[in-house]
Each structure stands twice: as C-alpha cells, then as structure tokens.
Write a structure and sequence with these properties.
The complex is a heterodimer of chains A (about 250) and B (about 300).
Chain A lengths: L2 E12 L2 E12 L3 E5 L6 H8 L7 E6 L2 E2 L5 H7 L1 E3 L12 H7 L9 H6 L2 H20 L15 H13 L5 E5 L7 H17 L3 E5 L3 H7 L2 E6 L2 E6 L1 H6 L1 H8 L3
Parallel strand pairs in A: 3-8, 3-9, 6-7, 7-8
Antiparallel strand pairs in A: 1-2, 1-4, 4-5, 9-10
Helix pairs in contact in A: 3-5, 3-6
Chain B lengths: L1 H29 L7 H17 L4 H7 L3 H24 L4 H21 L23 H19 L2 H11 L1 H6 L4 H27 L9 H14 L5 H16 L6 H16 L3 H23 L1
Classes of the chains: A alpha/beta (about 250), B mainly alpha (about 300).
Chain lengths: ~250, ~300
C-alpha cells in the first residue's frame, strides 16, 4: 500500500502552549487510522492543521506527495480531504439537501452568469448535483427528510448529516472528529458498520478522533496516541493498548 | 390614472428607487456581511451620470448619442462602482460583523467629504440643472421599474444556483463553508461588488430624476435608512427589503396629516418592529405560516 498522507514534524503553538509538538506520522491509503489521547492532547488541533483551518507553526504535511502546508482550507477540501467537526458545524438554517449540495461546489463549475440565465451546461450540472445529493442522503438514511432544516435534526442525525456533507465532496481522505460523541451503544455499533461500509464503497482513507476505546479498538487498523501535543505511540490497536507510555498517559505513572 | 400619476408619481418612483437601494444591501447580506456602503456608491453613480450629462467637455458626445447618453451613464456608473468596490471590498471584508458596518460607514463618509471638496463634483453646491430623460417625473417608473424586476429575478435565480448556495453557506458558517471547499473571501467580495454595481446604477438613474445632485445624496443617514428597510422587512428573503422600503417610504406620507408627530410614530414603529419582529416582517410571516400549517396538519391527524 502507498502512503496517502504524511506529516513531518508538525508543530503548532498558541502563545506558550505547544498544542501540537513535532508530530510525524504516515497514513496508508485505505486504512482507518485512529487518533486518541486525553482531553487537550491536541487531536482536534492536528485535524485543524491538516485541513488548513489553523496555520502550522512549523513542519510540513503532504497528501499524495503534494505539499499542502500553507494552503487555505477550500483548496485542501478541493484536493479531496473532507472533515466533520467535534461540535457539529452544519449549515443549520438550510435544509439537509442544501447542506449536502453545498459540498458539490468544488466538483462543479457554473459561474454567476451561467447560473442566473440557466445555460444548458449549468442546468445539466444542477441536475447532477441534485442526483448526487439525494444519493448521499439515501446512504445516510435521511432521504425522507431532505427538505427539513438541518438545525431541527436530532443530535445523532446531525452527526450523520455532517458525515454525508463531507462525503458529498468526493473525498479521498475523511477526517472524523469524535463521530460517536453522544451516541448510545446501538448507535455506536451502527456507526462502526457505517464507517466500514463507506470506506469500502468510496475507497476512502479515514482518520478518526475518538474517546470511546472499544470503538477505536474494533474499527481502526492503526492507532496513534497524542499526549500534551506529542505523539507517544503508533501501531496496531492491541500493541498500543499494552504500551507503557500510553498506560501512563491515560492512568498516570505508578 | 393621469391624475394619480401626477399626484403620486414621485412617490411611486421613490418607492421603486428605495427598494432597489435596500436590495443593494441584500447582496452582501446573502453572505452574512453587514455592509452599509451603498450610499457611497449611489452618490458616486449619480455624480458620474450628472457629470456626463452636464460637463461642457461631453457636449459633443451628448449631441452624437442623443438619449443613449443616459444608458451609457448607467453602464459607466456600474463599471466604476464595480472597480471601486473591488478595491475597497478586498481589505474591508477582512472585517467582521459590526466592524465591517463601521468600516463601510467610514467609506461613505470619505466619499461624501471627497465629493464636497472636489471641483468636478461642484463642491458644496453640487451639480444642478441635470437634463431630463422624460418630460414627466412619473415616467421614471419606466427605468426604475424594469431594473427592480430584473434585480428581483436576478436574486431569485441566484439563490437557486451554485454560487447562491455558496453565499448561503458562508452566511451560515464561514469556517465550515471553507472546509467544504468554498472560497469565502472570493464570494464575499463578489456579493459586495454586485451590491455596489446596483447602488451605482440606481444613483446614475436618480441624478436626472432628482434634477440636482450634491454631497447630501450619500450620507450616514441614508445608510441607516437602507438598513432599517432590510431590518423591518426581513433580511432572509428578497421580499424583505422590498416590503421594508415600501412601508418606510409610504409611512411618512400616510402620516403626513399628523404633521410633526409623524416622526414620533415613525420612530415608534421602528423600535416596536425591532423588538417584536427580530426576523423582520417577512420572517414573522413565514413563521406564522409554518405554525398555522402545523396546527392544520395536527388537526388532520386527529380525524
């Protein structure tokens, strides 16, 4: 397998705080790569660096060998890195369908004039967008509620819609920030199956931040552990679980 | 009909004109940006048209073009407004929320002081005796009316297009829109420029209509009026600015028999609307429609 995403000594500090401290890792194409660590370990900051939302302080990262460091978020998204947010950031005042349609932006090209006058190319494109968006809603099981406002959805449905919105980007890499937060056991099991399913269907690479240990252990091919911004272990879930440094980070030193 | 137009023609044209200016604020608002720059571009457009129509240097062109000098003025005003909006918008749109509002008020003030002190704009006196496009005042309905219809159609189509969706995404959550591949800066500037073009063209149409043009045309007061149109009418639907402008332009006329007390009532209406109709009248109506629909649907279930 080839490496799709590679980070080299990524750093980010906020004032005196080293939120991400010289983190290097590689993600292989097609794997589900877990990112765990105590609260405040820098997991979300690392996601923000990889999607361009937070500029890096130093270090680089590349995607399929192309350096993305310093690119704005919309460019990175356009290249095929989609994400969800820990604190759900849907377009709450818009319908579920519109939320998903918006992600087709980089995969379409109608300009202002063409859209206003309804040129044939633009109409054709609009039909394809509609089709694709309906397809995604069907996949996440929300096709019956396409016209409802995203803000009116239940917590779990909002999480699913957010994943759907990211999938509509046609990403190659999907970054999920605590997708199971606030879900019950049955929902978590569904989510596990769902993530496996979409990985296969769209040949995705998935990076996943998660606190729920059984879910991470069951789902991820490899796991990286962050603690105080430093990467303290990377490997298969079972090995990482036995790593003394990881045990210390989670439970404190003996 | 003839008598109605003689008496109320000026009011109808003013309604159309103010609706258009309210809509010029609606474009940046589609991307969630509160810009009050419209009066600056409105004044600019008016000066461009007024200068083209009065300056001796343009006399040859005017004789050659005849009435076509008027549309040429609209086009020139639109183009100059677009260029200026691009120059102003790129730095200004780095500001957010109330800071952008303040920045754009500063822009309006700068333009006003410039116009007040330049020779070509006639200084404090301004430009007067601007040639007329029509013999009758009310005939200006024929230019403002089609522009209003075109603008409404433009917005209606825009809101259902790829670009319009990008605008809405930015309004809802700029950061998330960026993460979904939308270049927020680009579309915020684009919406700002479209609003400026509209305000500039309206200015160019208004200069002959008002016969004189001076620095009082683009002031902070005008910024506040246009903002009031949008707030009262509703900022989430294209009918909001339209309704707000119509009500607020018509209200003082309807209250005219009350003499000076009308200003008090005008103010009370504004305050009450902002307290009880935070989403504007159109927002309140659509909420009412939804809840009526729910009651209706619930009754249907009972049967």
């Amino acid at each position: 397998m080839s490496i799709i995403l590679h980070a080299e000594r990524l750093c980010r500090n906020f004032g005196g705080l080293q939120a991400v401290d010289a983190v290097s890792f590689s993600v292989e194409e097609g794997e589900i790569f877990g990112l765990i660590g105590p609260n405040g370990a820098g997991k979300t900051t690392l996601f923000n660096l990889l999607t361009g939302l937070t500029p890096v302080s130093s270090g680089t990262f590349n995607y399929k060998g192309k350096f993305l460091t310093g690119l704005p978020p919309h460019r990175i998204a356009g290249l095929g890195i989609g994400r969800t947010f820990q604190n759900i950031r849907l377009f709450k005042g818009l319908s579920a369908l519109e939320n998903v349609k918006i992600s087709r932006h980089t995969r379409t090209g109608s300009g202002l004039v063409s859209g206003i006058f309804g040129f044939p190319a633009s109409c054709r494109e609009e039909r394809l967008v509609e089709e694709k968006a309906r397809e995604v809603l069907k996949l996440i099981g929300l096709s019956e509620r396409a016209e409802e406002l995203a803000g009116n959805f239940s917590y779990g449905d909002q999480r699913r819609l957010e994943i759907g919105r990211a999938l509509a980007l046609d990403p190659k890499v999907l970054l999920l920030d605590e997708p199971a937060a606030g879900m019950n056991t049955a929902e978590k099991q569904n989510l596990t199956a769902f993530i496996r399913g979409v990985r296969k269907q769209f040949s995705l690479t998935v990076l996943l931040i998660e606190h729920h240990v059984p879910l991470v252990m069951g789902l991820c091919d490899r796991v990286a552990v962050l603690d105080f911004g430093k990467l303290i272990a990377v490997g298969e879930p079972a090995d990482v679980q036995r790593d003394p440094a990881v045990i210390e980070a989670y439970l404190g030193a003996e | 009909m003839e008598e109605f137009l003689q008496n109320y023609g000026f009011l109808v044209v003013t309604l159309l004109q103010q609706s258009l200016l309210a809509l010029s604020l609606y474009f940046p608002l589609m991307t969630g940006q509160l810009s009050l720059a419209s009066p600056g571009f409105y004044a600019l457009g008016g000066y461009i048209a007024a200068i083209m129509l009065t300056v001796d240097g343009c006399a040859g062109v005017r004789d050659y073009l005849g009435w076509a000098i008027f549309p040429l003025g609209w086009v020139a005003a639109g183009i100059v407004s677009a260029v200026l909006a691009l120059l102003v918008g790129i730095p200004a749109l780095r500001l957010r929320g109330i800071y952008l509002a303040l920045g754009t008020i500063a822009f309006v003030e700068i333009m006003r002081v410039l116009f007040l002190n330049m020779e070509i704009t006639g200084g404090a006196i301004g430009i007067f005796d601007i040639p007329q496009l029509f013999e009758e005042r009310w005939s200006y309905i024929l230019v403002f009316g089609p522009l209003l219809i075109a603008t409404l159609l433009f917005i209606y189509r825009l809101e259902r297009s790829r670009i319009g969706r990008a605008y809405k995404a930015i309004r809802e959550d700029e950061l998330a829109a960026g993460a979904m591949g939308i270049n927020a800066t680009r579309y915020k500037v684009q919406a700002f420029v479209i609003g400026a073009i509209l305000a500039g063209i309206v200015g160019a149409m208004s200069a002959p209509f008002l016969n004189t043009w001076n620095a009082r045309q683009g002031t902070f007061d005008a910024s506040v009026s246009y903002l009031a149109y949008v707030l009262i009418g509703g900022s989430r639907s294209l009918f909001g600015p339209l309704l707000g402008a119509t009500l607020l332009v018509a209200l003082p006329e309807l209250l005219r028999p009350l003499k000076d007390a009308r200003l008090i009532i005008n103010g009370v209406v504004l305050v009450l609307a902002s307290i009880y109709l935070p989403q504007g009248i159109v927002g309140a109506m659509s909420r009412l429609k939804r809840s009526l629909f729910k009651i209706y649907a619930a009754r249907g279930d009972d049967k």
